[in-house]
Predict the structure of Probable D-serine dehydratase.
Amino acid sequence: MENKIVQGKSTGEWERQFPVISDIVSTKEVFWANPKVRKFSSAMKNISLGEKDVKDAEKRLKRFAPYIMKVFPETQKTGGIIESPTAKIPFMQRKIEAMFDEKLPGQMILKCDNELAISGSIKARGGIYEVLKHAEDLAVKNNLLKENDDYSVIDSSEFRKLFSKYSIAVASTGNLGLSIGIMSAKLGFKVYVHMSADARQWKKDLLRSKGVTVVEYKEDYSRAIVEARRQSLQDPDMYFVDDENSTDLFLGYAVAAYRLKNQLEEMNIAVDENHPLFVYLPCGVGGGPGGVAFGLKLVFKDNVHCFFAEPTHSPCMLLGLVTGLHDKVCVQDFGIDGITEADGLAVGRASKFVGKTMEELISGCYTVKDEKLYMLLSTLIDSENISLEPSALAGVLGSVQLLKSKAGKKYIKDNNLKDKMENSCHIAWATGGSMVPEEVMKSYYRKGRDILHRRFPDR
Ligand SMILES: *Cc1c(COP(=O)(O)O)cnc(C)c1O
């Protein structure tokens, strides 16, 4: 690799200082344990957000539940609360053991955000939350709404008329645009979604069918977000959902943790000192996985171990955390192309806000080859009949990476987890998939099967 200068140091010097960078740059799969991770209580001393903020977000979502239930009838069964099921996946666990020749102790669980109502991905948490909060702020300011009102009144021409005077802009690789676009259009806002080149055609078509203005770019996400920010700065009535810096998005995602706690209790799954919980979260810019992981740390403290999962060709959060440069480095600085079929994770530069906030709370990161995402995709359909989009499979490889890699083994040993692995629970956060059109899903499935046949010709 040419020796480019990144923040005053050559890439060669960065590699010597942090040897894991060599493997990252060669787009090899890596598992990295975060040397800065600390006990929950000491890490929290440096973080301004806390339980109160997440509870506040949870209450706001409850206030909106009657409205959500009214305008999205598919949420009636959960009383207007947008939440996904949590499922055991024992057949998949056995398949993975065979595929990677690694015994997986404990139980494997899938958090099925692919089934989230309204937009079929993890973005239905943070994205929808931020739009609702903005709508509430405007309605309260205009004396149309009070906090103890029945929020189903928002489904009226009076409110739509108010919101139609305002607009919302966002940049997206696809799913954030879907959730912001669908929710904003439903409320009556004008919406602009700036889509990077990675965004799938069906996502753009779907948004346009809902009256959303989709602006397309030939470049990656970084360009789309610059343009979206620029557009919103020119219009005082335009609200910009800032995926790189938004605390509202982050808090909307974090609410998931309290709900997961209840679900695990209902499933009789213990999380305590002798029953560690491992959670593997597909990571793009960082808001979704960072917010969820933050909530999980608030709930389970030192008994939960959270890991970010990224494609080998777009490991922006990993590079940001390893070097401590966060948003001052992008994958292209190190000669990594940023090209991946995991469109939800195709981000070259991570959020500084998330990197900084999670710096001492996140246990580590690992990367996955696109090929494996497809292998896991078709295997999950065959074993459990669950269909996810490629990005959403990145979490499924977590336990294998933890148990197989040298750095993962060391993590287990250093944290005295070895004897507890039989009692452990491993949650792969399945971040999206239910909105993928059937014919697109079929082509993903075939691709996965083809890769498997090439790798294991006699199975
Ligand atoms: C957006 C997205 C992620 C990652 O969320 P970030 O906030 O970008 O880190 C993961 N999986 C899917 C399917 C997504 O759409």
User: Anything to note?
Assistant: Residues 51-71 form the longest helix (21 residues). The chain has a mean pLDDT of 96. Residues 122-247 form a domain with the Rossmann fold fold (CATH 3.40.50.1100). The CA atoms of residues 189 and 312 lie 38 Å apart.
